[in-house]
Design a protein that fits this description.
- This protein is about 40% helix and about 20% strand.
- By secondary structure, it is α+β, with helices and mostly antiparallel strands.
- Among the domains are: about 190 residues, Immunoglobulin-like, CATH 2.60.40; about 130 residues, Neutral Protease Domain 2 (Neutral Protease, domain 2, Orthogonal Bundle); about 80 residues, Sandwich (Immunoglobulin-like), CATH 2.60.40; about 130 residues, Peptidase M1, alanyl aminopeptidase, C-terminal domain (Zincin-like fold), CATH 1.25.50.10.
- The strands form 9 sheets. It has an 8-stranded mixed β-sheet with strand order 6-5-9-3-2-12-15-14, with no helix packed on it.
- Helix 3 crosses helix 5 and helix 4 crosses helix 5.
- The N and C termini lie close together (about 10 Å).
- The relative contact order is 0.07.
- Bound molecules: tryptophan and zinc ion.
- Zinc ion binds next to helix 3.
- Its EC number is 3.4.11.2.
- Pfam families: DUF3458, DUF3458_C, Peptidase_M1, Peptidase_M1_N.
- GO terms for molecular function: alanyl aminopeptidase activity; metallopeptidase activity; zinc ion binding.
- One of its GO terms (biological process) is proteolysis.
- Belongs to the peptidase M1 family.
Amino acid sequence: MTALKKPQAQYLKDYQAPPFLIDHIDLTFDLLPLNTRVTSVMTITKKIAGVADLVLDGIDLTLISITVDNNAYTDYDQRDEQLVIHNLPEQCQLTIVNEIAPKTNTSLEGLYLSGGAYCTQCEAQGFRKITYYLDRPDVLASFDVTIIADEQFTHLLSNGNKLVEGKLDNGRHFAKWQDPFKKPSYLFALVAGDFDVLEDTFITQSGRTIDLALFVDKGNLPKTPHAMASLKKSMQWDEQRFNLEYDLDIYMIVAVDFFNMGAMENKGLNIFNSKCVLANQQTATDKDYHTIESIVGHEYFHNWTGNRVTCRDWFQLSLKEGLTVFRDQEFSSDLGSRALNRIDAVKVMRTHQFSEDAGPMAHPIRPEQVIEMNNFYTVTVYDKGAEVIRMMHTLLGEEKFQQGMAMYFQRHDGQAVTCDDFVAAMSDASGIDLAQFKRWYSQAGTPRLIVKQEYDKLSGTFSLHIEQLAPLNQPDNAPLHIPFAIELLDQQGESVPLQFEGQPVDHVLNVTTAQQTFNFDGLTTKPVAVLLEDFSAPCIVEQQNTATELLHIMRFARSDFSRWDAQQQLFIEAVKGAIATPVNNQLDPAIITALRGLLVAQEGDLALIAELLKLPSFDTLAAEFNVIPVDQLVAVTNQFELQIAQQLRSEFLGCYQSLIDDGSVSATAVAIRALKGMCLHYLAKINALDINQLLVSTANSHNMTNVLAALSAVVKADNPLAKELLNQFDSQWRHDVLVMDKWFALQAMQGGDDAIANIKKLYDHPCFNFSNPNRVRALVGSFSHFNTAQFHREDGAGYQLLGDLLVKLNAINPQNASRMLTPFMSWRRYDEVRSVAIKAQLQRLALLDNLSDDLYEKVDKALQ
Ligand code: TRP
Ligand code: ZN
């Protein structure tokens, strides 16, 4: 099966510095929906003698004129997606005028209309949809931007500082902006719209006052205080933890409804998906609050890690994204619960990243080959990238890591650099050799560690034999440098000091070869070993700990993360056991006892207890099998949940009723809601009058976290209350599309034979819109990721639904189509019937006449 066209891949090894520099660009936008005129005046310098052609990128542009040093210029050629200008002098002023049509741009890349507002998205290669340019991150220019628009667009915004604004004829007005910091084109931004504004200020550590402004659609002001508070916390945290102060005098955030990702770090003018900004207690969940804080932080932290120091080329994306995710994770952990943040991050790794790394799109955190860059904003580049930074942090320690960061900025401020440059700064500043460690940047796949434990009673010696296996699909991977953290517990649950032959041993072991043994002595009984404490490396560990040992770890490990990790392992083993020998499938009573203990004692962080009560997700369990046993996994997890619900009914009820949620956003109240929500999740499985009353009253409360907990509990339990409660929610919230996304997601979770027909019917709901990525993901994304039983129906109707959607999205928004395709990528891991059905959908896409590069790359890889 071959597609009709074959887009070209780009290779890291082919990198060449740009032959021309663009030092300065002066842009003027005359904004109109169908013919916006863009005038670009560039200062061009030839860098490499003898190069005759300046090759500029440009897509979907109408060229009006080219002028060189004020003279009309005709020595050029237009190619597909390129403008080639011949025989330019060593230095010149190049003026290009072109037109674009923001109104018909549904790709949400370049300049487009979101609702009634003009906005831009330029990362990675969207600037070329605005004007002809050297659209690559190693071309750094200063930008002056003039925006002209109808006066109804009250706010005209771009990067940096506003120089002047004023009225023009014909009901139009203008504003002129200047960004003093040189930047690559992907950080350019422009917004024109009519907004409400929340203003505030932040005083930096050196005493400068920064103006802060948050622009939202009219009427949304009451939903802005949380994002503003998050921004101020981010600014303060970056000063305290990383000694990094904001540089411009103004920081703006604009929230738009049509956006492909979460948010974008454009210099001084972040553009956000409105769902990552807007929140109040009635409309947003505690999880939404947390996400908003973390994304506001992420984009703010990019100002130094991404903007002041940027990427030489897009293969280096993890230079800014891995590092900035690490920074936002640390921000969330310093401000909230470190253990829960770690649990969240590791879940992302074990579910999404491990499966990407084992599938046809597997790539190193620094990819070597790319067809469509938008396909590489992945969990590998972002989240595994952050794990790689975290491992360096573990190896160096906070102090030396910060010295490395300081050296990185000292060497590279204002430059476009590589991942090698980052590691060199870390290594040079700390004196720690990271040569072998750097393999993490070039090797794909998840390393597998086989750990064997041995205890010699006579000598009191305990040994860990660690074998490092290359991932199955990457057989020539060389051994990695793996920081392997451990804890040894004695029978009383006390932590044993690590020592060997009179010397203390650090709890982070350096695993560097294919096979290695680590010895510890002075042990009078066999210890219980906590392995890969805090997930100190992104690896899979195969180990021999028994259920008794795992229960011991769950009770006593010093790391709350590792306690949760042991719980996950217990459930995974139980599920695997039940599938291997499906006799009576009873959950080990010791596990039930442990869960009862947690519920009754309610000791420590209640949000952690909620996590400890949660079964591993379908994706986590699926990762344990070569061929995913879909039906058995669904059946066994249902049985286990029902057993837990039945055996702990009174404990869940007692816990729910004893905890009082004061409705605030304090950590305590958030934790209480999390635990109560988990109680409801189990209780909804039991159909009884008193429990139904509880569910209905919670669904009618005024806190979105509680409302959703009740609704999601009834939907997932197939409780007969679901239909009526969902209808009620629809009539209550139709005016608020972000809230309706939660409703679409709940609809997508429903079971039953009409599940798929129901989703198709919702395509006609007044709030649904195929052009809005939030709506599409809420409805179809939730369905394909979380409604396992229906998406993976044996008759293929679930796959057909997604296939139909992808055909449609391919033409509207290829970037969103490509992200929605992900569940199809692991088609080879399903049984015969299912894999054939998914493959047919992939083949159908491959034959599309207008197949986008985005889909081509993934479909082609999947079918290889
Ligand atoms: N740089 C953004 C971030 O991670 C990611 C991003 C936002 C993006 N919008 C995009 C990437 C569009 C590709 C395309 O913070
Ligand atoms: Zn980012």
